[in-house]
Structure formats: structure tokens, C-alpha cells
Amino acid sequence: MARRHDPDRRQRIIDAAIRVVGAKGIAGLSHRSVAAEADVPLGSTTYHFATLDDLMVAALRQANEGFANLLAARGALTDPDTDLAAELAGLLGEWLGGDRTGVELEYELYLAALRRPALRPVAAAWADDLAARLAARTDPATARALVAVLDGVCLQVLLTDTPYDEAYARDVLTRVAGGRR
């Protein structure tokens, strides 16, 4: 039998892993569950991702890209005339608005990094990248503090299942930024 050329298979496997984690959590992730979700042979998942950690790293990178794309689309972080705290609060509102599956997935994968060291560099890279972008508008220490506040607000909203309060987030971010615009 001829081997079927399937250039999108790796991406379909990553997408399937994200859906599995979204539906069943990290505990439901296995090569078998991903293969079934992607409708590919089990050997394809292990060919592209030798370990589950490899697969989770790819899924976390993809989830990070979603936030980075949202950040880039807003573009206001590069405009020194915009109110930084208001822009970040709006960004967070957009990220948390609507379907939270992607946000929940991202945080579930971040928390998995506590037990899976392979995920730590990817989680750290996201925080470092965001801090570097924010440092263009403020100093590096304040930029890292803003990232911590954004993470904290997201976790509080997700864990308490409360609605996102943009005015509160803007106020807290303004305090951390020292009133900087």
C-alpha cells in the first residue's frame, strides 16, 4: 500500500490535542485519545511527538500564539500615546470574553509545567516575550509586574468563574504601572 502524503497531519494532531485537553483536561490526554480525535493512526502521533510532553509543548506554543496574535492585532502597545493600563485591561477583556476554552487550556498547560519540566521553557518564554513588549512602554521591572498582574487577574476570573471586571483590572494595572500611560 502506498504511503499517503498528509502535510497537515502534524497540525491536525496538535489541534486534536488542544480539543482533548479542552474537553477532558490534561488527565485525558494520551497518544491514543489524540489519535482518535485527529482521526489518524496511533503511530502518527508517536511519529510526530515521541512523548506526551512533546505534544503538550506544541499545544502550549500554539495557545501562546493566540494571545500573541491578539496582542499584535491591537497594536496599541507600540503607541506611546495610548493609556497602557487601559489597553492591557481591554486586551484581557478580549482574551477572557466569549469562549474561555483557549484561555483555560493555556492555563491548564502552564500549571502542568509544575510537574512537567519540558513545559517550563515555553511558559517562561511567553512571560518573557510579553514583558519585553511591555518594557518598550515602561521599565523592565514594571513590565514583569504587569505580566504577573495579568496572570493573576486571569487566574482569579477562571478559578472563581466570576465575570471579568475591566474597570478593576484597569485600576490595578494603573497602580502597578505607577500611573504611566
UniProtKB/TrEMBL annotation:
Residues 7-67 form the HTH tetR-type domain. Pfam families: TetR_C_31 (PF17940), TetR_N (PF00440). InterPro entries: Homeodomain-like_sf, HTH-type_TetR-like_transc_reg, HTH_TetR, Tet_transcr_reg_TetR-rel_C_sf, TetR_C_31. Gene3D superfamilies: Tetracycline Repressor, domain 2. Keywords: DNA-binding. SUPFAM superfamilies: Homeodomain-like, Tetracyclin repressor-like, C-terminal domain. Residues 30-49 bind DNA. It comes from Streptomyces hintoniae. This is TetR family transcriptional regulator.
